[in-house]
Specification:
458 residues; alpha/beta; 44% helix
């Protein structure tokens, strides 16, 4: 194992060099992937030196998500103490379903959940778990809401059509989870939004009243703290009033921007969060931990246990239910995702996490200011968002982003809202500095003038 740790260190150094000297990997077309790289699995193994060279080639061609040229997804960068925690979790190799096999790691997870619940304004008896991604966090919230509406469903299954509500700008997992949980995609109601992509509570109530009149059973509303494209925050207080009136479960999907709970300056964006029934946040997004680190908490601890517990004598042999985390989890075997956020939080403190979050808004404002001061750009996003959506010189966004990627210039994606397509630059990497934002625009402008526009004129 010592030899492999040394090899790992050598490969890390190789990656670090590439992130500086070749921050955007040259993509391999899918039609050429198996010819370019030896990904075969054979009867006989290979010697360590051959394996090392193969791994180096794979690392060279893998997208560099920690580089300062990566603006493509809702994650990015690499924070050292969080990475340390994840590496320790791999070496320790504990599963998190019982205290017997996880020991103090259970306490670490429970402490993180407790502090997140406190920041969300939840009651002292709240509880939660770590899920394998934001989509699964949303599914857990939906399941708890379904079971809270009709506790017989767990044993007997659905006996009537239930409806749920989410904005047209929300994450696709809501419809997907409706299909997976037996609710059905056709029972998902899409609520209209304003020009910023924020859910309209008036339309929400209209839809609910219509469903009640038509004999459906409304049960769940999903609000979003940071929509996927524009980064919009739904008005939780206004939505909560509708939910309370009709006795519906309110979940706040904060997978993207729920990390604002750590920021005094930006926490107003989720005003009313304490009125929700459940809340999810991905620490691998705004807080910068390695993938994945998805947290869901609820103010209804008994409902969490009711929806996800199942007796298993071969598993739960010691200690109380509070320390046997498998009884409140979607999974049985579950990797230790809590340690990486704990090592980060422990090392920098809550104030340090606040700085990490605030930095992203600061970089976003620098980007918006740059765009607003340049007539060649059109800005589509707004203040209080870390998604900077724009177009440049009328160049189609999908063509521009694809060309930048294929030419190993920048990793940035495109989005669409209200039938308008645009580049979506995300400043979620807390290691970015002002010069990195300017370098992004300089690279883009140089590429367009020297390659894209020149090819059009010729």
């Amino acid at each position: 194992m010592q030899n492999d740790v040394a090899l790992f260190s050598e490969l890390c150094n190789e990656l670090f060099k590439l992130e500086i000297n070749k921050p955007v990997a040259e993509p391999i077309p899918t039609s050429e992937l198996y010819q370019e790289l030896d990904l075969s699995l054979n009867t006989e193994g290979i010697i360590d030196n051959d394996l090392k060279e193969t791994l180096k080639e794979i690392i060279k061609s893998t997208p560099k998500t920690a580089s300062k040229s990566f603006f493509n997804q809702l994650f990015g960068g690499r924070i050292d103490k969080a990475t340390l925690g994840d590496l320790l979790a791999v070496i320790l190799n504990n599963s998190m379903y019982t205290y017997k096999v996880a020991g103090p790691q259970v306490g670490i997870e429970k402490q993180v959940l407790k502090e997140v619940a406190k920041l969300a304004g939840y009651n002292d008896s709240s509880d939660g778990t770590f899920a394998p991604g934001g989509s699964m966090s949303n599914m857990m919230a939906l399941i708890m809401a379904r079971d809270a509406k009709n506790e017989a469903i767990r044993a007997e299954g659905l006996s009537s059509k239930m409806t749920l509500y989410t904005s047209v700008a929300s994450h696709y997992s809501i419809s997907k989870n409706a299909a997976l949980t037996g609710i059905g995609r056709n029972q998902v109601r899409q609520v209209n939004t304003n020009e910023n992509g924020e859910m309209l509570s008036e339309h929400l109530e209209e839809l609910i009243l219509k469903d009640i009149a038509d004999g459906y059973k409304p049960f769940f509303v999903n609000a979003t703290a940071g929509t996927t494209v524009l980064g919009a925050f739904d008005d939780i207080k206004a939505i909560s009033k509708v939910c309370k009136k009709h006795k519906l479960w309110l979940h706040v999907d904060g997978a993207y921007c729920g990390g604002v709970i750590f920021s005094k300056k930006h926490k107003h964006l989720i005003k009313g969060l304490e009125l929700s029934d459940s809340f999810s946040v991905n620490a691998h997004k705004m807080l910068g931990t390695p993938l994945t680190c998805s947290i869901i908490i609820t103010q209804h601890k008994a409902q969490l246990h009711h929806s996800f517990s199942n007796e298993a004598d071969y598993l739960y042999q010691t200690d109380s239910d509070d320390f046997n985390l498998g009884k409140t989890s979607l999974q049985c075997g579950r990797r230790n995702d809590a340690l990486k956020i704990w090592t980060l939080w422990k090392s920098v403190g809550t104030k340090g996490l606040e700085k990490i979050v605030d930095k992203q808004f600061e970089m976003a404002q620098i980007a918006r200011d740059y765009i607003n001061n340049n007539d060649d750009y059109t800005l589509y996003s707004f203040d209080d968002s870390i998604s900077i959506c724009f177009n440049y010189k009328g160049v189609p966004a999908n063509e521009l982003c694809t060309a930048l990627y294929k030419n190993s210039e920048l990793m940035v994606g495109f989005g669409n809202f209200n039938n308008t397509e645009f580049v979506r630059m995300v400043t979620i990497n807390s290691l970015l500095e002002k010069e990195d934002i300017y370098n992004f625009f300089e690279t883009l402008e140089t590429f367009v003038s020297e390659k894209m526009l020149k090819s059009v004129t010729t």
